[in-house]
Amino acid sequence: MVDQWQYQRVSGEPDLDRLGAEGWELVAIRGEEWILKRPAPDPAERFTREQRTAALSALPAGHSPARHLLNPQIAALIRQINHTQMLLIADRGFPVPSLPSMIDISLTADIPTIPQVLAAILPDLPADRLIVAQEQQALSSARWEEHQAGVLPVEALPHLEFKRLACHAAGCIRTGDSVPYANVLVVGG
To answer: Which helix (H) or strand (E) holds 27?
Structure first.
């Protein structure tokens, strides 16, 4: 026996084939209003349906959701970054502290760069802000401006404080970036 029903009122003639495929039954017609019902889904099913609808409505027409990341270790690492946790994206010379996870994707000088890694991971990583060393402003001003032009707020800390904070990151991706003070901490949102 179903304890709860979900009702829908539709003005004008509805697409009964689509509604029937979605589990709706016609209950009544009152003038131009059609009243339909179906068994109320359990909460997990409802949440899944609502999240799917929201995610698909955010996509451009004709596009399907797809994972951008091909590297399974990086995909797994960013799925572990939760609210307020940090991910260190390090340049080739940063003394990476002992962290639970460290993935080295450096190939040669500046392949890949930190901005390239950010561009690849941020679509899949809800983030709140970037943290960089203050020294980046003076010694790598083009990189500083690139971060400022991005979608995330940027905080700057003295390099020694940045290094201390990096010890608390949940993991690290090491790049081949050679820009001075290029390192970034991504704070999960």
So the answer is: strand 25-30
